[in-house]
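Weekly modeling sync, notes
Attendees: AB, CL, MP (scribe)

Item 1: holo prediction request
CL wants a bound-state model with adenosine-5'-diphosphate before deciding which constructs to order. AB pointed out that an apo prediction alone won't tell us much about the pocket. Agreed to run with the ligand included and paste results into these notes for async review.

Input as submitted:
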Amino acid sequence: MTALLRTEGISKAFGGVQALSECSIEVEAGTITGLIGPNGSGKTTLFNVITGYERPDEGEVYFADRKITRLAPQRVFADGIGRTFQLTRIFPRLTVMENMLIAAQHTGTASRGRRFGNPLARAGGPADRHRAMELLRFTGIDGHAHALAGTLSYGQRKLLELAYVLVADPTIVLLDEPAGGINPSLIHVISDRIAELNAAGKTFLIVEHNMEFVMGLCHHVAVLDYGTVVAAGPPQIIRDDPRVLDAYLGIAEEDDEPVG
Ligand code: ADP
Ligand code: MG
C-alpha cells in the first residue's frame, strides 16, 4: 500500500541551521500519524515544506502519488491538504462566524457575490452559514458564533482553528500542536473530535508535545531529532524506543518553558 502523503529525503537549511536533513515520512490514508521531537527538531519546518510555505533545498513531497513539491500554498490547500498553525491565525476583530465565512471564501465554496471587493461579502450565502454553524456545533463553540474571535479563550481558538480548517473538507489535516497550552478538559474535546473525524475517514498528521494525547490518539508515530526521522512505528513501540528517550532527554530541562 502506498502512503497518502510522503516526504522523500527533504533537506532544508536556514543560514547555518540545518532544520531538516534527508527527512522521509509516510502517512497512510485513514490513519492518525503523530510527529514528535524536541523543540527545534524541524517539525514545523516539515509542515511548511509539505504545505508550500517553505521550499526544500532537496527532496520531494508526494500526495496521492502526485509530486507536489514547491507548489504554492493555495494549490496544496486546493489539492486537499489542510493545516493549522502553531500560533493561531484567526482574525480577532471579526466574529467567530465571520472567521468561518472567510474560510469558506478561501476554499472557493463561497456561494455568492464573488465579484465584490469585501471578502465577507463574497462568502456568507445560506449554504456557507449552515455549514459553518454545523462545524461550530461539532467543535462545541457554536454558542460563541457571534462573539468576536478575540474574546475566545486560547483553547476555544484552537477549536475554532479546527472548525476553520474543516470548512474546506480536506483529505488530510495537518495540526501543529493542537493541544499546546490548553486546559485538559478542552484537550479531551479536541482529541475526541479528531478521533470521530478519523473514524469517518479523515487522515491526520499531528505535531504534539503532549505524550498522553499522542499515544492515545495516533496509530503511527514518527520521531524527529535534528531534522531526521530517528524512529517510526506504532505508539507502544515508540514509547519504549531508547532513541526516543535519547531525543527527549535533551528537552527534559526545557519542559517548564512555553512550547516553542
Ligand atoms: P520545531 O517545530 O520542531 O520546534 P522548527 O521547524 O520550528 O522546529 O525549527 C527547526 C529549526 O529551524 C530551529 O533551529 C529553528 O530555529 C530553525 N528555523 C525554523 N524556521 C526558520 C526560519 N524561518 N528562519 C531561520 N531559522 C528557522
Ligand atoms: Mg514547531
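Recorded for review: The pocket of adenosine-5'-diphosphate (ligand 1) is lined by residues 14, 17, 19, 37, 39-45, 260 (CB under 6 Å).
Action items: CL to compare against the apo run; MP to circulate these notes.
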